[in-house]
Structures are given as C-alpha cells and as structure tokens.
Design brief:
By secondary structure, the protein is of the alpha/beta class. The protein folds into two domains: 218 residues, Crotonobetainyl-coa:carnitine coa-transferase, domain 1 (Rossmann fold); 110 residues, formyl-coa transferase, domain 3, CATH 3.30.1540. The chain has 15 helices and eleven strands. Strands 3-2-1-4-5-6 form a six-stranded parallel sheet, sandwiched between helices. A three-stranded antiparallel sheet has the order 7-8-9. Helix 5 crosses helix 6 and helix 6 packs across helix 7. The longest helix has 26 residues.
Length: 364
Amino acid sequence: MLSGIRIVEICGIGPGPFCAMHLADLGADVIAVEREAAAGAPSSLLNRGKRSIVADLKTPEGRELVLKLIEDADALIEGMRPGVMERLGLGPAECAARNPRLVYGRMTGWGQTGPLAQAAGHDNNYIATSGALYYNGTPAEPPQSAITLIGDIGGGALYLAVGLLAGILKARETGQGTVVDASIVDGSAHMMQLILASRQKGLVTGPRGENMHERSHFFATYRCADGHFITLGSLEPQFYALLLEKLGLRDDPRFAGKQWDRARWGEMQAHFTELFASRTRDEWSALLEGTDVCFGPVLSPPEAAAHPHMAARDIYFERDGLLQTRPAPRFDGQAVTPRPLPQRGEHTGAILAALDAQAASVWG
C-alpha cells in the first residue's frame, strides 16, 4: 500500500525500529542505517522487510552518506535524545537543506521540549507520568504495565507512523516537509481520551482501585484450576445475564439483578474467584468461548499462535525458527506476508553503487 514511499531509518531501539518495520510491512522502502558491528551479527526481528546499510555517523563519510540517502527520501526516522542529531550535523535544518520536502520523524519518550526532555526513561516511566498506567491492576497490587505495548508501541511507534504519513501527504501537496515530534508521553496521554470519555459517562468515577474494571466481578481476570487465567468482560446487561446463565447463577439471589450493586462487588468477586478456580482454563473455554459472555483465555504467544481463531486468520507465522506476527491491518481481507530479515549491512554495496550512479547521472 505504501509502494513508492522511501524511509531512511537511523536505527535505535524500541519504538523507532517498530515504526519503520510497520511501514516496511505496508510496502514502504525502508533503508535501515545501522551502526558498525561484528560481521555476522544477527538482525533484529524489527528489521524485517528493510534494506540494511552500515555507517559510522561520527565520521564525515557516515554523515554525508545519510545526507545523500535523504535527498531522494520521503521521511527520516530517528530516536536519539534531543540535540544528538543536531550535534552530528544531521538535524532537521541540515536535512531540509538537502531535501525541503523531507518529513523528519523524531521518536522520544519525553518529547523534544519540556523539563524532562533530556532525562533517560523507559516505557513504564513514560506511561506512569502521562496517566496511562494509573488504572492498571487491582486495588491490592501496584499498577502493572503491559511491557512495551502501551508506551513504546501504542503511544510511541504507532503515533509516529500516523504523523509521518500525515506529513508525507502534506509534503506531496505543498512540497514542504515537516518535523514530527512523536513522544510516548504525548501519545499515551492521547490514548487516555477513551477512559476520559468513560469518566464522562460515569463508568470510571473513582480513584484507582474503586472502578468497574478494578473491583467488579464481571470485568476481571481469574485464575483457573491449572494455574492459567481467563478474562471476563460481561459489562452490558444482556451479556451479564448470559454469563449468569452459563454459570448456573441466573436465579441466584446474590447475583440476579445486582450487577451494579457496588457494595456487594467484593463478595461477588470472591465467589467468582472460587468458582473459576474449580475448573481448568480449557474447560472454561469450552463453556464460554465464542458466546456473547465476552470471554477470552489468557494465552502466551506460542499458545496464541495455535489458538483456532488466531490460526484461522494466520496471525502468527514462523520463519527461520523465529515466531513472528503478520502485518496489520489487512487490506481487502488479505493477510500480508512480510519480506524477510536482512543481514546486517547486506545492502551496503548495492545502495552505495546506486548513489554513485545517481550522482553520475546528475553531474553527467
């Protein structure tokens, strides 16, 4: 879908490489500029579908290579601390001088400005500060982050991808590039808008530990007899009624008609905890999965790959002994098979030759 779009990625860690991989999965030509490394160093799964070139950005030759690459690129992705690219001579001003229509994508945790801009941090720090971690977990436990998913990917990589594509559309219309300041604190805070809408509706009304998804018996995670877990999301009254029916509690006076009796949620959850501990995850799946109860087993990645629904949609696949996920979303209902991983520096020779040929054609 993104055929004809070229991205130059200054390789880093986490959300920047994921964003570049996502764009490569969707058809963009992504050139990953990697640091000098030992021959044969394994390529990251996040490099799939990219072309790989090695360069030392601390040398004049390495910097000039990047500037040559961006002359014919739509966008650049970098994930350094604010100011590092400028000190290397590869900041937005230098790159715009070579290519005024370049979209310059900057991926950070704290953003390019603000009191914390120069501080180190990780996914959990950013989402804690943005408010996105606050409601996670139960009242008796510290908030737990879904490692990398809320911050690095949700609030970071995907927001950078949207920003880059919006910038490219603008550049193609106006001939003028832009700088995309994608920070995880910005993106993960923006993701809170749905919860803020739930606050507006009265579904999330109290401090942490006092809300429906933290205290109720019908929107929770339970341990099963085999030590595995299942999830319930029986929020709507018709789904809750079906849950009680499936559990043999439809006429039980402790539950019937009392879904939103918050004073009794603790008692109800204790009963559900005991009930779900009486059978295995697979037994509960056989009873509840595929119904309107709103149910899901908690699966590891290999288990998820083998799940009938996931397998039918061919969401996971294995290549060279490595478990991977297919690109998303789908277009016209078709699953996409991504291009393979490159060896580190595999395309250095070909890319340098192409740049030399391009220069020769320009200067005649």
